[in-house]
Specification:
Elements lengths: L12 H13 L14 H24 L9 H10 L11 E9 L12 E4 L2 E7 L4 E6 L3 E4 L6 E11 L1 E8 L8 E2 L11 E5 L8 E5 L12 E7 L3 E6 L13 E8 L12 E2 L3 E3 L10 E10 L7 H14 L6 H11 L3 E8 L10 E8 L7 H11 L8 E5 L2 E13 L8 H19 L7 E2 L1 H9 L5 E14 L7 E7 L35 E3 L2 E7 H8 L19 E8 L5 E7 L2 E6 L3 E4 L4 E11 L7 E5 L6 E2 L4 E5 L3 E6 L45
Helix pairs in contact: 1-2, 3-4, 4-5
Length: about 700
């Protein structure tokens, strides 16, 4: 009996070929046969090739049955279906306009029509830098007409890029039917499904999409959505137990939008091509229609990629349509609000002070704007369907958190022809790229000082090294002018403690402030921008200047609003207390030695009780800066960090051999904003500084 080949797992052509030769040598006819150069070698090559391709195809076919190893989209979708995951369809860009319509009197009467209606369908045409696109309204929109002027106003009309199409199926129980949407690039979020008893009937029931079988019964008007081959979707209706079963002869009507997705983003000017009719059935002439753009086309997206499906499907399955863990909330919100570029969820117990019974979800939108109150409420209401009864979801804006670097880059002046200003421009450009690269997913992460400095060092071949001093900034924003408040900021990073470097007097006399054995700190590591504190007036400063101690100020502070408030700042005293200070005749005066506290070990800064009387730019926010102990920055929960206002100083070490220290309290100036001569820097203009505007979204 011939020997059985042993190397059955070989997939390399050479190995397969050698395995065939080894097998043949077990036969007496070929025991001493020289295969090389013989005609048998050609036959062996053919057998090896055939075996190789068969093994390859078998291996690939097996790989396509697993989500992790599958490469063909249709196979990835089939495996994801087993996890009850439906890939996200292409998403139509949406825009918003206001439409003013001037109607005309009815007949010979002075009366105007009661209403006007914007008919569904293709209504606008617009163009961006790439192409011309059609926009549609998915439902009729009706508004009232002013009986005095005949003017009708569609205040906020939201419309979508694409053509509004429809397709019908007649249910036939004698056939196996699949109700497939006959177009690709369909936005399933805009899909509307209607069922009527027969082809002649005008009575319809609208069916809604179902994501799970919870609370379904035999009368539920629902359908399930699945992706099928060729990037198309099909609807699956109930079986009479989980959802209503369709009856023979019923008519299914699908209305859907076929869209170009993200390609249409950026369209701003819209030409009206639709139909508006009044209550008398008369079309409104184009010259009586005025269009005002509120929001340009945005939020268009491509179909979910295979890589994204492979990532999201197992996590969707793990969520099981309920929000329990932070990861559950993050995933569910991503499905509820796909316009989010990144999401972070964290329990209220992680806050300082802790807030129990609530989970906070911070959302960064792709548009870079804050979510309006309506959008936040809609997201919250959708989340309540998944949340545990005792837990309240709170939709918030990300906490603004600014990383302010000051960098000295050492370069060899003989190795480059660039000037200091040219190197500075290159450095700032790279910092901007570094900042942008970290934006999509920085919630709960870190900003490593080593990576930052490595980016600086690689900006130009002449740069040999760099030193960076970091400042962190947040805003006090939980106050109104004139009202006493207390607010704590969590920087979540240790802060330099000035007391650690204060030293000890050799004579042991102390500093005269009650802390015998230690010198008074000579610098601060917590500073605020300039503001005006209620009650701290010119007359008070005059009294302090005459030598009144801070312990006597309580009886001196006035609420007389007829006096001019003086510009003040907050700084720490190096011992954990926050001081309120001002400058008079180039001398610092301490107006209050207890306006808050700082924990140097944790980076927690608490300001108050204090009343802010005003800020230089009139906004109710006050910047606080700290000097962190390390250049590797840990990002606190719910924080949206950005590198802001970087300062770079190229140093030609050939001419300037001096070395800059990684920590220099004299280079820590705090930060500020607004029209004042004290401690000025520009307020952040990064996209994380969200503008406030009247948006439809």
């Amino acid at each position: 009996m011939p020997a059985v080949p042993s190397q059955l797992t070989a997939l390399d052509f050479a190995e397969i070929k050698e395995s065939i030769k080894s097998y043949l040598r077990t036969r007496s006819e070929f025991s001493d046969y020289d295969f090389e150069g013989s005609s048998a070698a050609y036959l062996i090559d053919i057998l090896a090739y055939n075996t190789y391709y068969s093994a390859f195809n078998a291996n690939m076919a097996l790989n396509e049955t697993f989500l992790e190893s599958a490469t063909v989209r249709d196979n990835i979708v089939r495996v994801a279906k087993q996890l009850n995951y439906t890939p996200r369809s292409v998403k139509a860009a949406k825009a918003c306009v206001a439409i003013n319509v001037q109607t005309s009197a009815v007949g010979n009467s002075p009366n105007f029509p009661q209403t006007v209606t914007l008919k569904r369908g293709d209504v606008f045409v617009s163009r961006n830098i790439t192409d011309t696109y059609v926009f549609c309204v998915v439902n009729d929109v009706q508004v009232s007409v002013d009986p005095q002027t005949g003017l009708a106003e569609f205040s906020k009309i939201i419309f979508y890029q694409g053509n509004l199409l429809s397709f019908t199926y007649v249910v036939d129980d004698t056939k196996r039917q699949e109700y497939i949407i006959p177009s690709d690039n369909v936005d399933t979020q805009l899909l509307r499904v209607y069922v009527r008893p027969n082809i002649q009937s005008s009575q319809t029931d609208e069916y809604s999409t179902a994501n799970n079988v919870v609370n379904l019964n035999s009368n539920s008007r629902v359908y399930f959505l699945e992706e099928v081959d060729d990037l198309r979707y099909k609807t699956v209706f109930g079986d009479g137990v989980l959802g209503r079963k369709l009856v023979d002869g019923e008519v299914i009507e699908m209305r859907y939008v076929r869209t170009a997705g993200s390609e249409a983003n950026g369209c701003t000017d819209f030409a009206f091509t639709g139909l508006i009719v009044d209550s008398e059935g008369r079309p409104i002439p184009p010259q009586n229609i005025t269009i005002t753009t509120i929001d340009a086309a945005q939020d268009g997206e491509s179909m979910e990629s295979p890589l994204s499906i492979k990532f999201n499907a197992p996590r969707a399955y793990a969520t099981q349509n309920r929000a329990v863990t932070e990861a559950d909330y993050e995933y569910i919100v991503s499905t509820i609000y796909p316009q989010a570029s990144s999401i972070t969820a964290y329990g209220g117990e992680k806050l300082s002070p802790p807030i129990y019974g609530k989970v906070f979800i911070a959302i960064r939108s792709k548009a870079g704007t804050k979510l309006n109150a309506t959008t936040k409420l809609n997201i919250k209401n959708d989340l309540l369907k998944y949340s545990m009864a005792a837990i309240e979801p709170v939709i918030t804006d990300p906490i603004e958190y600014y990383i302010i670097p000051k960098t000295w880059a050492y370069y060899d002046g003989n190795a480059t022809s660039k000037s200091d200003s040219e190197l500075k421009t290159d450095l700032l450009r790279n910092i901007d790229k570094f900042n942008a690269a970290g934006k999509p997913n920085r919630f709960g992460g870190r900003m490593e000082g080593s990576k930052y400095n490595n980016m600086i060092d690689n900006t130009d071949g002449s740069i040999s090294g760099s030193v960076t001093q970091m400042t962190l900034g947040q805003n006090l924003d939980q106050f109104t002018f004139g009202t006493v408040f207390t607010q704590c900021l969590n920087f979540n990073n240790p802060i330099h403690n000035p007391g650690d470097l204060a030293g000890t007097p050799p004579d042991g006399t102390g500093d005269g402030d009650g802390d015998k054995g230690s010198c008074a700190p000579t610098y601060s590591t917590v500073k605020s921008g300039t503001f005006y504190a209620t009650g701290y007036t010119d007359s008070l400063v005059d009294v302090v200047g005459e030598g009144v101690s801070t312990t006597q100020l309580a009886t001196t502070v006035t609420s007389d609003d007829t006096e001019t408030l003086v510009p003040v700042n907050i700084r720490d005293d190096g011992r954990g207390n926050l001081l309120l200070v001002t400058t008079r005749n180039e001398k610092e005066l301490i107006l209050n030695n207890s306006v808050g506290s700082v924990d140097y070990s944790t980076g927690k800064v608490c300001v108050g009780p204090l009343a802010v009387g005003g800020t230089p730019d009139g906004t109710e926010r006050l910047p606080i800066a700290v000097n962190p102990y390390s250049v590797s920055i840990t990002i606190p929960p719910g924080v949206d960090p950005t590198i802001f206002n970087p300062n770079v100083y190229p140093i030609n070490y050939i001419n300037n051999p001096g070395v800059v220290s990684p920590f220099d309290p004299n280079n820590f100036d705090g930060w500020n904003y607004g029209p004042t001569d004290i401690n000025i820097i520009d307020y952040p203009t990064d996209t994380f500084q969200y503008p406030e505007f009247d948006s439809c979204f």
